[in-house]
Write a structure and sequence with these properties.
The structure is a single chain. The chain has 79 residues and is mostly beta strands. Helices cover 0% and strands 48% of the residues. It contains no helices and seven strands. The strands form two sheets. It has a four-stranded antiparallel β-sheet with strand order 1-2-3-4, with no helix packed on it. It has a three-stranded antiparallel β-sheet with strand order 5-6-7, with no helix packed on it. The two termini are 21 Å apart.
């Protein structure tokens, strides 16, 4: 798997909402839509290791190592 620039990704955690998959590397979350056929980064770099990932509608919840849960609202107006 690669991102939009062709950089290889190691997806460690996954979550799915409808037809969209979300994958977390150690410090970033990406989105995969079937119609685009590529992974696109949807969060800034997380400063601590990601330990869990879930999605609820347009909200991502990212668990971190010892720093709690981060919440990111996805902006679908860019799509």
């Amino acid at each position: 798997m690669t991102d939009a620039e062709g950089t290889p990704l190691v997806i460690e955690k996954m979550a799915v909402e409808d037809t969209t998959a979300y994958g977390a590397t150690a410090r970033q979350v990406y989105q995969f839509k079937a119609d685009s056929r590529r992974w696109e980064q949807v969060t800034p770099e997380v400063p601590i290791t990601i330990t869990s990932l879930t999605v609820d509608g347009n909200t991502l919840y990212v668990g971190t190592m010892g720093r709690g849960v981060l919440r990111f609202t996805l902006d679908y107006s860019k799509v």
